[in-house]
Structure formats: C-alpha cells, structure tokens
Amino acid sequence: MQIIRNDKIKExxxxxxxxxxxxxxxxxxPNTNKKYIxxxxxxxxxxxxxxxxxxxxxxxxxxxxxHYLEHKMFEQENGVDSLYKLMSLGLDANxxxxxxxxxxxxxxxxxxxxxxxxxxxxxxHPYFTDQNVEKERGIIGQEIGRYDDEPSWKLYINxxxxxxxxxxxxxxxxxxxxxxxxxxxxxxxxCYNTFYHPSNMxxxxxxxxxxxxxxxxxxxRLLPKEKIGKIxxxxxxxxxxxxxxxNEQNMEVNIPIFMIGxxxxxxxxxxxxxxxxxxxxxNSLIGKSSKLYQNLYNEGLIMAPFDFYDEFSNEYSHVVIGxxxxxxxxxxxxxxxxxxxxxxxxxxxxxxxxxxYGEYVSEYDDVETxxxxxxxxxxxxxxxxDYINAFSKITLDYVNKxxxxxxxxxxxxxxxxxx
Amino acid sequence: xxxxxxxxxxxxxxxxxxxxTVPLTKENCTKNALITSVLxxxxxxxxxxxxxxxxxxxxxxxxxxxxxxxxxxxxxxKFYIETLENTYTLNNENLLQEGIxxxxxxxxxxxxxxxxxxxxxxxxxxxxxxxxxESRKDNKALYAKERCLENMFVGESYGLYKYGTVEDLAKIDxxxxxxxxxxxxxNCKIDLYIxxxxxxxxxxxxxxxxxxxxxxxHHIAPTKPNKINEVQDVTQGxxxxxxxxxxxxKAAVSMYNTILGxxxxxxxxxxxxxxxxxxxxxxxxxxxxxxxxxxxxxxxIENYDKTLEIIEKQLEDMKNGNISDEEFNSAKELxxxxxxxxxxxxxxxxxxxxxxxxxxxxxxxxEYKEMIKKVTKEDVIExxxxxxxxxxxxxxxxxxxx
Lengths: 419, 402
What we know:
The complex is a heterodimer. Chain A has 2 domains: 2-233, Cytochrome Bc1 Complex, Chain A, domain 1; 246-418, Cytochrome Bc1 Complex, Chain A, domain 1. Chain A is built from 15 helices and 15 strands. Chain A has helices at residues 65-73, 82-88, 112-124, 130-148, 151-163, 177-180, 185-195, 211-221, 271-286, 291-298, 328-341, 346-362, 367-379, 385-390, 396-406; strands at residues 2-6, 11-17, 23-28, 35-41, 49-51, 58-60, 92-97, 102-108, 201-207, 232-233, 246-250, 257-263, 307-312, 317-324, 412-418. Chain A has a 7-stranded mixed beta sheet with strand order 1-2-3-9-4-8-7, sandwiched between helices. Chain A has a 5-stranded mixed beta sheet with strand order 11-15-12-14-13, with helices on both faces. Chain A is globular. Chain B has 2 domains: 2-196, CATH 3.30.830.10; 226-396, Cytochrome Bc1 Complex, Chain A, domain 1 (2-Layer Sandwich), CATH 3.30.830.10. Chain B is α+β, with helices and mostly antiparallel strands. A 5-stranded mixed beta sheet of chain B has the order 1-7-2-4-3, with helices on both faces. In chain B, strands 8-12-9-11-10 form a 5-stranded mixed beta sheet, with helices on both faces. A two-stranded antiparallel ribbon of chain B has the order 5-6. Chains A and B meet through helix 2, helix 4, helix 10 and helix 12 of A and helix 2, helix 4, helix 9, strand 10 and helix 11 of B.
C-alpha cells in the first residue's frame, strides 16, 4: 500500500491498487464519527461510443445511458431497492452521473459495514428486465422535464453548445425523452459489462478507519471477475476552435443570467498548476476584491460576485464565468477586455495564492468533501494532495503566461437566458 | 452578548456566528433585511467592500456570509466568518482572533457619515434587495414552498417574506435606517457562537444584549383546507400542502413527518414517486417552530387530482395506524443518524444550539436523540389524528382547471 503523508495539512492518504485493477484510496479521519464512501466508474455521459474489450465489437449507445444505468442499479432481483435499504440503515445514500464518471455513495455514523455489504452487493449485481427498464422511463422523463425548466442548467448547456461543435460534453447528461426511448436492457448490460469492471473503478473512503483493515473488508466483498483489456472509447475529433460566439434563450427569469466560457486548448500543461493559475487570475482580475467587480457593483450592473470554475478531462477543457445582470453583453465585454489587457499584480498574486491555499486546506474539514474530491480528481488521474504541494511551485510569470495563452477573445463565448 | 463556545477537534477551520434576534414584524422586516447588506459594505476601518474582501483574502481566504432568516416568530440577522485554524497557517497567524474582530467590526462599527449610513451604499443595497425580492420566482421549488407558507400564515408574522416588501423598501433612506439600526442594537438579543479546537483564548468585548419578549401565537387551521392556484410559465407543476400539526410533542411529530415524507422509505416517496411514477420529487419538511409540515411534490400539471388523492390517502392511512414496523424503524434510524451528524458539522452545531437556546428548550444533542428513541408508534398515531390539511397550493401553468 502506498502512503502519502502531507505535513502541511497533517493528513495521510493510503492508496492500494488491487490485482483486478481497482484502486482504493483511504483518507483516515480519526476524530470524526461520520464515515463516507464513494465508488466511481469512469463512465459518464460523454462515453457513448466504444469498443467492447471482450468481443472487439464497436458499440454506439443512445445519449443518457450512463445516467439511466445509474438509476437502474439500485433495483435488486429480490425486489429490494438498495437505496431504501441503505436509508433504512440510517445512511444517507445517493448516486450521480457527470460528464466523465458515475458514482455511488453513502455516509453516516452507524451501520457502516451493513451499508458496505449493500453497496458492494448492488453495484456488483445488475438486474435489468424489460419491465423494470420500461418503468424507469417515466421517472427519468420527469427528471429531464425538471432540468428543462431549470434556467441555470439550460444556460450551461447552451454555453457548451457555443464552445463545442461535436463534443458530447454539450449533451444533456440525462439525455432527451427521445434518446432514452431507445434504451433497452441489452444497452444497459453492454455498458455495465464494459464500464463496471473493477479495472475501470475507483473507491474512496474517509472516516475513522484503519487503512489496512478497511481495504481487507472491501476485498472480501469483491466478486472475482475475468480480466478485460483496455476499454477503447471513441470520441469525435478534437476541436481547436469554438462553435459559435453566442446563444440566447428566453425563459422566465426576472434578471437575465449569463455564462461566459473560454475554450482551453493548452495541451501540454500540468493540470494542477494550470488550475491554480486560472483561479489566481480570475480571483485577482474579476474576483470580489478586484477593481472590475467593485466598479460593476457600484454601477448596479451586478449584485453578487461572479461564479467561476474550470472543467476538464482528456476530451474537453474550458473555463466558465457566471452571473446575473440586466446587461450581460456589457459585462461580457468588460470581462473579456479585462482578461485580455490587464495583468495580475504581485500583491494580488501573493494575497490570492494565500486565500486559495486556505480554501484547499479547508476542504479537508469534512469526510464527504474529502471522498468526493479524491474521487473526482483521481478519475482524471490527479492525486488531490498535489494541489496543496503545487503552491510552492507557482510563480507570477507562470500565471501571466497562462493568462496570455488562455483568455483570448476569439476563444470566448456567451450564453444568456432572459425573459 | 451571550457567548457560546462549542469545542470540537473534528475540523480544520473555526466558525464564528453572530446572531441578532428580534420579533418578526411587518414594520421592521424589510429594514432588517436591508441592514445586513448595508453592514457588509464597509466599517470605520475598512470603508469599502473591496477593502473587506482584501482583508478576508489575507486571512487565508476566510469566508464571510450574512443574511436573514425566519425562526418561528423571530427574525434573525446572521453573520458568519470561517477561518483556518491557526495551526494550519504558514506563519503562525492568529486567524481566529482576527476573524472575530472583523466580524464584530462589521456588525458594531459600521461606516457612519454625518449620523447616517453611507448614502450610496444604502441606495445600492435597496436596489439589490428590490431585485432579490422581485426575482424570487426564479427558483420555482423554493418559491412554491414559501408561497404556500405565506398563504397558510397570512396575516400572521410568519406569513411575511423574510426579505420584506418593495413598498416598505421605498420608505427607507440612509438616515432612518441608521436610526433604526441604533434602536435595533439596543433592543435585540445578541449571541456569538465560536466553534473549533483551540478557542479558550479569544478576546471578546462586552456588548449588552436584551431578553426578548415571549411570543405566543396560535395558528388555527381552517375547517376546510384553503385551495390556492398560482399561474406561471412552468412545465412542471409544484403541489405543496401545508399541514397543521397543533402543538403536539415535537419528537413524535418529527417521527410522523419522517414516516410521511422524509427520505426514500417514506410513504410519499414510495407511493407518489415509486409506485405511481407521478413525481420526480415527493417529500415533506417539519417546520418545528410553527407546528407545521409542508408536503412538496413536483408533478405533471394534469396529474394534480391523482397526486392529491394519493397524498390524502397517506394522511388517512397514518391516522388509521397503518404504519409498518419497517417504516417506523427506518424513520427512527434516519432521524437518529441525522442527529448524530449535527456534531459533524460546525454550522449544524451552531444552528442546533442557537435554536435550543432561543426557544428555551436547552436540550443537548444526546438528550434530543434520547427523546426520539422513546417515541412509540402510538405517539405517532396520536399526532396523525390531530393533523389537519390547512393549505393546498398549486403552482401551475393552467388558468382554467381547478
């Protein structure tokens, strides 16, 4: 077992890769009573075209299948729904699907091992029938309807449509009512057998655990599986431009909401360092303490700080800046201009580096955040502790370089929702 | 000022919370909401929010937050600051003390010019609050829930919107708001909560706080439930039902609420979502300090009658004692474990102890858990028999029907 100790935050991380290829990450938190486990597979909404490792058969699946599969995993052959079983143990259980992974999780103070039995049982025992797959269609249809009504979701999807022409990141994670109508139990089994193999999965556990012991408990509950080769995923060709500059949709929102996006096509950067640089740039130039933010606030053009973050995998990478304003076009113009013409001062750099460091450390406050972050990072091949260590390596020169290469007007787009 | 220290070695950050509590009234509601936003704009020392933001960044990105909330018939102005524990700083800074100083400065040493708040700050925040009030319809689920409560408690203080009204806002200026602020600080209850590991050595000045008047309000449910439809451009309808649970034993009502609509094993989730596939969401919330339960569902517009019928059947079933051991036990597990989680979150800890103190129950987390454990099925059935449907609210796109 690999042990990584970090003295700055006084935490240790234990990483074990099993013979079947599954990775287990344990972050012990001896003083907490809450325990948290999250088990993820590298299968998300963008993985809709792949080659089945066993047969070599090329498979194309309808949009929304990863999410549909997530819904159906809970149903067991004996009629028991595992979500309810976990909840009746007093555990807070859930599952979610993103662009690049699906995860099953629970947390709580008591009954952890009973919960572990159930989690590892249901994730390893798919039970799909024509009837139960059919029944789910109504529920997921409702969920899609709920998202269709959600202005902030539409705003995001419309921005992705600006930033990408063919990349599946622009699709609704749940698919559409039309696309899910083509999902059958065979589709679900094809995807399950490919992507739910241990070699494609990562488990993160945090709480008052002895790492060796909990890894043994997990191993005991794993079913033997035949080795499979590497899963080959097929994606559209990489794009190096944006699709369009602007999307606008009318929905019932009182004040227009907007998202500005930047396509990031820098391919040879260390993702951890780049992400920190992006945060420093945005905090310094458009964050709460920036001149731009204060001016826009005093002019009454915005009433709350911008939300910003970057998202990336091997297939996509972009920066998103969101907010609410009566005049999104003007905000867009100002932000794009600021990011292209102004640069981060040394004072801003030092102060925001410190602030960011504080934010990263405080993520280790809670077992749930820890588990989630370690899973999401490791899906992308990142060890979360690298963020804490990277601070000493970031220089203002590096930050300036990233700003110049990334925040270009021609790589930006604007999505607006207004009445 | 009452200072409560909640010691815990579970976290890497300290949370400090300052609460200003007054009776909730129509007259002062809007002013309270506006004051929190004006205060965070500047202090005597840090005159602009830019300076405050820079200060927070220097404190390793300390988080500052403020807002107002309704708690029973009280209005609470809340101010929070979260700082990294001193031991994780790079140069051994005393972030806890600096954080508390900043929090107190924001609340008690605001920027004052010529015996008034800064005029442009007040004007700006008035505009922002106006927009906030006007855009509440954007979050449909929350809006429907709040509208149901406002209808249920119409004419009573709990029926007020926590941010007040646009009409009242128009009457406020930097002078009368400052006058009100001085009165407020003199006549409110002030509580400071400090959580974290090494919290013994903080220095806090003496600030006087008042006892609040006891508020006894009795809501009486109508003999026939009020039906309210509100029309908006939505594709999914929100059916919200307000239940009156009288002043029953709170632990038993908690159990009743959880069996009815708390989590995936509840009657609502099982029967409305799972068996009938009528909704994506279906559940209920207990508003403890108002003896009310809210049932919340998101449904297709045309399924209104069917959904209402199924919900009412669940209420009937519970009255008739139709509660399985499994439903009962799993609800108990769910509540017990949620209580055990209180001490795993700084914010929940503060919220729990503040609520206990304000309503003079003064239970510890353990005592509260024991009370839940003692609840029997008979207790729950007793509650069920007293439950009355008070308000049936529907957010719909259909003018014609119902």
